[in-house]
Amino acid sequence: MELLITFVNGLSLGGIYAMIALGYTMVYGIAKMLNFAHGDVIMVGGYMILLFLPINPIVAIIAAIIFCTVVGIVIEKVAYKPLRGASPLAVLITAIGVSYLLQSVAQIAFGSASRFVVIANLGTLKIGSLAIGYSTIITLICSMIVMIGLNLFVKFSKTGRAMIAVSEDKGAAQLMGINVNNIIMITFAIGSALAALASLFFLLKAPSITPTFGALPGIKAFTAAVIGGIGSIPGAMVGGLLLGVIECFAQSVPAIAPYTDAIEFSILIIILLVKPTGLLGKKRREKV
Amino acid sequence: MALLEVKNIEVYYGVINALKGISFEVNEGEIVTLIGANGAGKTTTMNSIMGFIHPKAGEILFEGKNIVGTPTHKIMRGGLTQVPEGRRVFAELNVYENLMMGAYTSKDRSSVKKDLDNIYSLFPRLEERKNQMAGMLSGGEQQMLAMGRAMMSHPKLLMLDEPSMGLAPILVSQVFDMIKHLNETGTTILLVEQNAEKALAIADRAYVMETGAITLSGTGAELAASEKVREAYLGG
Fold it and tell me: Is residue A70 part of a domain?
């Protein structure tokens, strides 16, 4: 039973990683770039929640989602769009620059000390001797809904299919009349909105925030995206959940708990050695 | 006024002069073909018309309007599309979804449904395989799909780049029959081909390209009879 609780905790944490990983993987799939500033959008969302919490938690969450979406779109327009067609290295370095920029702005605005953001005290569900936080359950349910919803959106909506088309063949997509710039913008918007949701769930788990709040979850979610196969939406989900479960099990064993991060990144290396494209990643289609 | 008028376009890849000021036109209702060896600049010409490549000089007039510098998706919305070399169907979408991508710009659902039925009746094989991933289709089926997908947008001018490449002879004939049929039902065609014999047989007019320039032009029959063309492209 102890194991079951750890497993549920792991799925819940993994759900958050998956939400962030989706942002990395969708942007990579469609714009063919690694947006290393994505983790910092989580932090932006966290501070927005902090800012608007005195009004009302719901307002704070909505404000965070809207603000992060706008931030994502602006980052793409200002920092990445002018570099379309530039070398991948230039784009990568720009992304790292944007990441530091966001952290520095947050530091100027909110200070570098950690701030408490208690959104709600949801209590714990007790079944016999077992206890599981309601926040864990809510996170798990919400992340599942988000993932299913996103899958349905990509598979069945016109915009979603256009996203698949652009990720597969930008040129052919343009021949369908698809405005690739718009699709890239929508992708950044969706990824950033998911990052805002992730900040909400992280704050429910541990209610404090600093300007580097998004850095480690960002790197871990990126790891999850690579484990699952970067560019693959189901891959990001599987990778995120897997990473979350591994993290919770590692932390539940006192002897190895301090090495949790090392274990996670080692698993990344092992998976990439065995399957360089990640678990669900596809080989690049050969052009005939 | 010609539907498409290419005037003196020059294209450079770095210092290499890929198109040395070529001019030609396509009138409404015609099948026009560009023939020539590999590297003559046929695909570069098409990619310039479609806005993938920006010529350094010259004009490309579609319905009298210069489209040089217009983004590809806007050119396409104006009624000009291309079946690219190598088909480039969306492998991760099924046949139906690929065809629907062709109707991406269309807002009228009932007319899309009608177009879809029309494509299925032209290519019954596509209907049989409508739920199959496009990546799993044979080369011939992918060519049919690429053509059907392009037709879903009702182009005024359809450009086809090497549609017969890599296909078995029987399929090549089918593809050319289909091009002829599409033309007879009202679509103007610009065809780039290495299979000069087949292309000249269905073309109203043709241009021969050599190393970035147009060296000969005439009706399909004239060029097919020309000594020079026979020697260079029709195997004597």
Answer: yes
B133 forms beta bridges with B94
SS3 B202: helix
A175 at the B interface (CB within 8 A)? yes
Confidence (pTM):
0.91
Give the range of the structural domain holding residue A118, as residue numbers without chain letter.
16-215
DSSP three-state, residue B131? coil
Helical residues (DSSP H) of B33-189, grouped into ranges:
42-49, 72-77, 95-102, 109-122, 124-128, 139-151, 169-184
Q: Rounded distance, CA B7 to CA B14, Å?
A: 22
Say if A161 is an interface residue toward chain B (CB within 8 Å).
yes
> Are A165 and B90 contacting, i.e. CB atoms less than 8 angstroms apart?
yes
Start-to-end C-alpha separation, chain B: 37
Contact B73 A164 (CB under 8 A): no
Residue tagged 């290295």 (tokens): A89
Number of domains in chain A: 1
- Among B215, B206, B210, which residue's Cα sits nearest to residue B224? B206
10 Å CB burial of residue B64 (0-12, 13-18, 19+) is exposed
- Report the CATH number at residue B107: 3.40.50.300
Nearest CB to B91 within list A168, A175, A178: A168
Any alpha helices (H) in B52-94, and if so which ranges? Answer: 72-77
Among A171, A175, A178, select the one facing B81 at the smallest CB separation.
Answer: A175
Query: Could you tell me the mean pLDDT of each successive run of 10 residues in chain A, 288 residues long?
Result: 90 96 95 94 97 94 97 97 91 96 97 91 83 92 95 94 94 96 97 97 93 95 94 94 95 92 92 90 55
Strand partners, B16: B13
- ipTM of the complex model: 0.92
> Which residue in A246, A254, A235, A267 sits closest to A14, CA to CA?
A246
Chain-chain contact of A287 with B86 (C-beta, under 8 angstroms) = yes
